[in-house]
Amino acid sequence: MSEQWARQKEAERAKQIEDGSPIWEACAVLVSKAKVVHFVRHAQATHNEAAAEKGRSVYTDPAFHDARLTDFGKQQCETLKDDASSIGPQVELVLTSPCTRATETALLSFQDHVPDVVKWYALECLREKSGQHPCDNRRSVSELKSDFGHTIDYGFMKDDEDVYGETLGENRETDEMIIARAHEFFAWIKDRPETNIVVVTHSAFLSVLFNQIVKCSFDMSKWFENCEMRTVHFTV
Q1: C-alpha count within 13 angstroms, C-beta hemisphere, residue 209
Q2: Does 3 score more than 80 pLDDT?
Q3: Distance in angstroms (rounded) separating the CA atoms of residues 90 and 36
Q4: Strands 196-201 vs 93-96: parallel, antiparallel or unpaired
Q5: Residue 202 in contact with residue 41, Cβ under 8 Å?
Q6: How far apart are CA 124 and CA 135, in angstroms?
Q7: 3-state SS class at 157
Q8: Exposure b/e, 95-132, CB count within 10 A at least 16 = b
């Protein structure tokens, strides 16, 4: 599921509203069954900056392997801190993609605001759409632990090397494969005791999640911008 597809759907929905189509949407869930989940797309990374200047072909450049945040991306995290400070005391669990740009976003935005007892986990299932683009592959867990192991627990990561991304090679991950990962994510959080969770992940994963799996309002199905956070009530 591409950004172009998502933007086209947004434009179609905006046109429907302009033409007077009904715009209200409603959903009811039992509070006793709900989890509050704060979904965040990572802040601007080096491959995003390069793509804005030179086009998406830069995603195939090995120089952007496991892309890091830009200085502007770090500024975006500083801005997100305003929201993080208000929700932080209630957060009980932080989950992040193992890709560096997502982990950096999680740490820079939330580390100062969530209680010290909160667990932080990296989950493979939260990574970006994989294959073909070096920017979407991750470094080894050993390297990631060296950088972030003081806060992030990598105990749920099965492989040290990026076996999943390297196996795909020049083949791009399909939406069906991302859907399978999203189901893995739901299965993981279903039996967790925490009910207020931060999830830092990626645009394609979020687009598939809120367009092909979760029944949600138009506001949730739109493409996530860099460092954007949306808070939802989930029943799993």
Answers
A1: 26
A2: no
A3: 10
A4: parallel
A5: yes
A6: 15
A7: coil
A8: bbbbbbbbbbbbbbbbbebbeeebebbbbbbbbbbbbb
Average pLDDT on 209-214 reads: 92
Question: Which residues does residue 235 pair with via DSSP β-bridges, in sequence order?
Answer: 34
Number of neighbours of residue 233 by Cβ within 10 angstroms: 14
Given 38, 42, 47, 133, the catalytic residue: 42
Q: Residue 157: what are its φ and ψ, rounded to 5°?
A: -85, 125
Q: Which residues have a Cβ under 8 Å from the Cβ of 210 and sit 6 or more positions away?
A: 216, 220, 221
Query: Which element (helix H / strand E) includes 177?
Result: helix 175-190
Give me the pLDDT at residue 169, please.
84
Q: In the predicted model, what is the mean pLDDT of residues 78-91?
A: 96
> In this predicted structure, what is the pLDDT of residue 216?
79
Which pLDDT belongs to residue 147? 98
**Strand ordering across the sheet containing 119-122:** 119-122, 93-96, 196-201, 34-41, 229-235
Where is average pLDDT lowest: 94-98, 156-160, 169-173? Answer: 169-173
Cα–Cα distances in angstroms (integers) from residue 58 to residues 34, 49, 135, 231, in the given order: 41, 10, 9, 32
Determine the Cα–Cα distance for residues 18 and 82; give it in Å rounded to an integer.
Answer: 33
Q: Which of 47, 128, 173, 202 is catalytic?
A: 128
Maximum Cα–Cα distance for the chain, whole Å?
Answer: 55
- To the query of whether residue 42 is one of the catalytic residues in this protein, the response is yes
